[in-house]
Design goal:
Layout lengths: L1 H9 L1 H19 L2 H29 L1 H30 L4 H10 L2 E11 L8 E3 L12 E4 L2 E9 L4 E5 L7 E5 L5 E5 L7 E8 L9 E4 L11 E10 L5 E8 L8 E7 H28 L1
Antiparallel strand pairs: 1-2, 1-12, 2-5, 3-4, 3-12, 4-5, 6-7, 6-9, 7-8, 8-11, 9-10, 10-11
């Protein structure tokens, strides 16, 4: 004990120096936007490398199970395609109709394939990190989906990695509609189960039934219309009694999410540019009006 006391007394100046250095760095990055963004980007890149390595090991260990699910899913999809092709042929007598329709729909988008390297499920504000960034064409506010449906929205993009705000985040707010019925609302997640979210502000005059599909409405500047979200599982009244609140069984399995795609939709990108231009043009007018008021 005496030796420890002597050691601390001898090097107390160094300990004080280190403590002050740490405190100054915390204050620098915490209260300065530019330095904070530099720190966040650098830390995110290093963390992304670590998450990437961990994800590769995990993916290798679970490869057998994933391949089995993919095989099963491919068989189901092949059967569905055969059934749809047969029905379309009976209706139109044109076996290429389905292929042309699918091509027209997919040709609107550029899909950036990515892998999930880190994610969480047990927090009010969950985030997902993917292994694609600005170098690959990923930008802030792009929509992200997987083979089963909507995943989330790009929150921040570095050079080689990007962070996504998924549906399982309290700040997520995605405009959705009931497929084929033209009623829409806003998708929110309130914590709890990772396979359930809620569609709020559905009008009282809306007509729908349990099991109806919910898809993106296309009314936002993030997702195109028609991306699957889930199915209606239960119906509640809103707190004010003026609208419905629908419980949605999400189609995306966030607990087993590995492969995603970032949707680079030219029409959505143009819509974002028009909205930004409008905001930039309105801001000087507001400032001018405020100046007159003074």
């Amino acid at each position: 004990m005496h030796n420890l006391t002597e050691f601390l007394a001898k090097y107390k100046h160094w300990f004080l120096f280190v403590a002050l250095e740490v405190l100054s760095m915390v204050l620098l990055f915490r209260f300065n936007d530019y330095q904070g963004s530099v720190w966040f980007t650098s830390a995110n890149y290093v963390a992304g490398l670590a998450y990437d390595a961990t994800s590769r090991v995990t993916s290798y260990l679970t490869m057998g199970e994933v391949n089995e699910k993919l095989t099963r899913r491919n068989l189901e999809l092949e059967q569905q395609v055969k059934e749809l092709s047969a029905r379309l042929y009976d209706t139109t007598k044109d076996s290429a109709y389905l292929h042309r329709g699918q091509y027209r729909f997919l040709s609107k988008f550029r899909l950036i394939q990515a892998k999930v390297v880190a994610s969480s499920l047990d927090r009010p504000d969950n985030f997902i990190t993917i292994d694609k960034g600005t170098w690959d064409g990923v930008r802030k506010d792009m929509g992200v989906a997987c083979g089963n449906g909507v995943v989330g929205i790009v929150y921040m993009a570095g050079i080689h990695y990007a962070v996504i705000i998924p549906v399982l985040n309290s700040k997520s707010n995605i405009s959705c509609s009931i497929q084929g019925r033209d009623y829409f609302g806003y998708l929110h997640w309130n914590g709890g189960a990772s396979d359930v979210a809620y569609l709020d502000d559905v009008p009282r005059h809306a007509r729908f039934k349990l099991g109806d599909r919910v898809v993106t409405s296309g009314y936002s500047s993030v997702f195109p219309a028609g991306v699957l979200v889930g199915r209606i599982r239960h119906v509640y009244n809103s707190e004010d009694g003026l609208s419905y609140r629908l419980q949605i069984q999400l189609s995306t399995d966030f607990g087993n999410l590995r492969d995603v795609c970032v949707i680079d939709d030219a029409s959505v990108r143009e819509q974002r540019q028009v909205i930004k231009a409008a905001q930039d043009s309105i801001r000087p007018l507001e400032e001018q009006s405020a100046g007159r008021g003074r």
